[in-house]
Structure formats: C-alpha cells, structure tokens
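Sample pair:
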Amino acid sequence: MKSTIKGHQGVKNFLEKILMGKVPFPSALLLEGPPGIGKRTLSREFFLNLYCRRETSHYCGECHSCKAIHSHTFPDIYRFPEEETIKIQQIREMKDYYVTPPVESNWKVVYIPSLENMTINASNSFLKMLEEPPSYLRIFATTNYAGQILPTILSRFMQIPLTTPSWSDFKAFCRDSLPHIPEKYYQLLFYMSHSSPAYALKISKEQGFLTIRDKCLEGLIQLSQKEEAGPLYNALNYAVEHNMERNFFPTILFLIRDLIYIQLNLKEFVVNRDIYDKIMSLDKEKNVSFLWDLADTFYEKLSVQKKFYDQFLWNEYLLWKIMKLRKSQ
C-alpha cells in the first residue's frame, strides 16, 4: 500500500492484505492511538488505494476518484466532521446514506475520524446500525481515546492499535518533512512534540519551540539565582500567545531533567546538548534535591492543569524518582 507515513509497518501490511483480498475487509475497523501519529492520514491513503481507478498496486493521485477523495466529494465515502460532537441526528443522516448501494465501487465506507465524540443517544443509534449492516457497507474509524467509547461499540470493531513513532522513524520524518530544521534539533523536537509528527510540524514553524526553550531557560536561571519568577511567567505568556502552551511545562521539565543528568554524570542522556553551557549557568550551588523539588512542583501543576499528554514523559519522571531513591540510599 502506497503511504507517506513513516513507521506503522505492521498496520500498513495488514491494510495492504485487505486491498489485495488476502484477508476479508472487516465490517468495522478502528485505528486507535495517541494524537498526531498519522491515523487519519493512513485512513485517507487506504481509501485512495481502495478506490483509485488505475489498475496498479498504488494510488495515482490524479484520477477522478483520487481527486474526489482529496476534496471530500467521493460519493462512496460518508465522512463525519473531525473534532466535533456527533449527535443522533447525524447518525440518522448517515443511515439515509448507506441504504442505497455504492455508486462507483464495490464498497460504501462510513469514515468516523473521532469515534469517541459520539453522544450517548448517538452511540445507541449507531450500535443498532452495526448489528445488521448491508453487505456493501464498511465502517472505518479512528480515535485518540478508545477508553471514552462505549464497550458495546468497541466490541463491534476490529481494533488496530498504533503507537508513537520510534526514534529512527521520527528522524526519517524530520529529514523528509522538516528540511528547514537542523538535525541537531531532532532529538529536542522528538521530546517536545511527544514524538508526534503532526505536532512536530506545528511547533517547528519559525522554530518557535527554540524560542520557548530559551525563554524557559532564562526564567529558570532568574528563579534559581535571584528567586525572581517574572521571566518564567513571561515565558508562559509567550507560549500562550503563540498557541504553544502545551510545550511550556514539558520544556521546563526537560531543562531540569538535563541539569539533573549532568549533575549525576549522565551527560549522554542530555537532550538540550546545543545549550549545554547555558544549562550549566543555572546556580551551581543548588544541589540536586532542589531540582527534584522543582520538578515535583511542575509535575503537580502539569497534572492539575491536565497538560499531561504523553506516557513517555510520565515514564521519564518515574525514572527520575528511581534515581533519586537510589542516590539517597
């Protein structure tokens, strides 16, 4: 299957088998995983490969079907809006769509990009439709939060989990899609985007993630040396004004994390290597316990404000705690 997505090879291989007729096309298929890892792009590319009129193994992007799919006008795909609450009226309208056979292909597809956004009434109506679908109908859905979907609906889907890209896949993505970003920043972008290619694209514009990092570092320096919090608030205000508040607390934590690793002689794990000397300008008289306490404070704030987006970040924090306990023994 032709795809622009890096990684997810196992999922792509399975979708390829569906296209080639080697495995049955499930009546309801759900791609689930964290935001920004390519679920919707992969769905669109599957539809392109499924409906392309060229007699090739990969979609052409130029035929009538490919162009109609790109413009969301292909008659055999019913697409729900992204990121919007799905109400019962929309389910009723969708039922009006699928009662007639396909127009240009063998399949009619209902695509739901945010399955978790159904109301209870809509979910109950949708469940009834799933019990006896027409033979030509296929439901294709994606979700960031499978736990928010009714178990009775989930049980009707073949669920395919997608994980965040590996470091090697993320680097390949950066080389292809972010040619304006120097390679020395790839690792920093990997952490700050929570390894999400979609979010990496967003925050890499004008290299704003570097500006936030520099402002956060200056704020930490002022806080540790002069106990002045003003610059740190300025950094937060900058992040909010540029719609990057999601980056503020993780950026603070990664800077603290790097200094902790430096002081524990674990320099090979430092992420912000290009500003190593600046990180060291944080008050050297402050001991590691001060940094642990500061990290704890920011993690508490992170959780309270529901800015906790990344399981990887939580794993990092647990490792810090283990290191702290070992050091105190």
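Strands lie at 28-32, 77-79, 108-112, 137-143, 158-161.
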